[in-house]
Amino acid sequence: MVADKASDSPNGQNDKLDVLKSTQTIVQLALEKLGYPDEVFELLKEPIRMMTVRIPVRMDDDSIKIFTGYRAQHNDAVGPTKGGVRFHPGVSEKEVKALSIWMSLKAGIVDLPYGGGKGGIVCDPREMSFRELEGISRGYVRAISQIVGPTKDIPAPDVFTNPQIMAWMMDEYSRIDEFNNPGFITGKPLVLGGSHGRESATAKGVTICIDEAVKKKGISVNGARVVIQGFGNAGSFLAKFLHDAGAKVIGISDAYGGLHDPDGLDIDYLLDRRDSFGTVTKLFNDSITNEELLELDCDILVPAAVENQITEENAHKIKASIIVEAANGPTTLEATKILSDRDILLVPDVLASAGGVTVSYFEWVQNNQGYYWSEEEVEEKLYKVMVKAFNAVYNTAEVRKIDMRLAAYMVGVRKMAEAARFRGWI
Ligand code: NAD
């Protein structure tokens, strides 16, 4: 399911699946609770800059195909904007805008000197050759080169993009800029100035949030039954970390279905067999649907795939006592309320998945200073940032008697609003 399909059709259900609209709703509520005047919301409800580009790519059959791409820069009051580039057939302008707002919130929550940005290209990389992917990656950078750069807007990986794609993009930007510029993009291979720990950073951050969340619920990761939707960068590393910590991963899924074993899946085998797009279920005949997967009896549920997976249709059927959102926007606002009323602890995306942008920031810092850190140093720094952020959000939720999503938005939006005020914008 992708966000734009739902938001484009004209019935009432669509607003509920409109990720931009629901993001704006909580940003407005968070600003109201913090006592900011309306003009602050007027500034923050949309990106300050949005670019739509058309990218011509010569395909392997020698035809030319034109792809549509976007780059949204939500707000640069705090510093340069930052956020991933998604290659997916469901990418839409609305989705990219919402994702850029979430990036601003994440940067605020983990206290980075950035605003949020996001990009996307409407394409299906699973059906493109290596050479075509290089063409589309380089074409995108040429198209957006005027508005991006290490002090303007710094891209990174997201759904269906990876270190190889970051390497092509960095190389293209360096050619345009006429010097080697690793700080232009993060999530690069190590040999091109990538950071230790970047590839697994999102999952590491989610793991740290799970460790903190189980303490609040009085359970332990060791022996906990876990279900993870999505087996790509975020989901697969997470499965490995939780399995190694003694959890029983009883369900995983990808875009084609899910696998379930109440005694625990063989995670090492599945990691070995998954392809570079996070697909593994096609190898099995007895798969279940993604809908069934979300409703499995478990202790911890981690959506780590796409938007709008937990809705008012299935929220009352969720059996987990803790949900930690590795994906961006997997739960609708209506579902958040149902889960909160059911006393399910929901750790929201803007907090739980902030490990990726945090280590991307570390990568950019290392590129800027030309001095590189060990994996242990990166992990230690990430741990401190995530624990502090988790507790800031959790305590706000407790004190204000609100759910963790609204609390996270309140923590995340404050720095941006203050920076805009000091600059004299509002
Ligand atoms: P990925 O491309 O590596 O993997 C995506 C996974 O989701 C794959 O297993 C794919 O098969 C599955 N999937 C795709 N469509 C699906 C559908 N309709 N139903 C069920 N599964 C589906 O992507 P990723 O980097 O792991 O990102 C996953 C989520 O985590 C996204 O929401 C992304 O925005 C978020 N996220 C990723 C990072 C990061 O650093 N990679 C950081 C923050 C947030």
Automatic annotation (TrEMBL):
The keyword NADP does not apply. GO terms for molecular function: oxidoreductase activity. PROSITE patterns: GLFV_DEHYDROGENASE (PS00074). It holds the Pfam family ELFV_dehydrog_N. Keywords: Oxidoreductase. Residues 195-424 form the Glutamate/phenylalanine/leucine/valine/L-tryptophan dehydrogenase C-terminal domain. Signal peptide: none annotated. Belongs to the Glu/Leu/Phe/Val dehydrogenases family. This is Glutamate dehydrogenase. It comes from Aquibacillus rhizosphaerae.
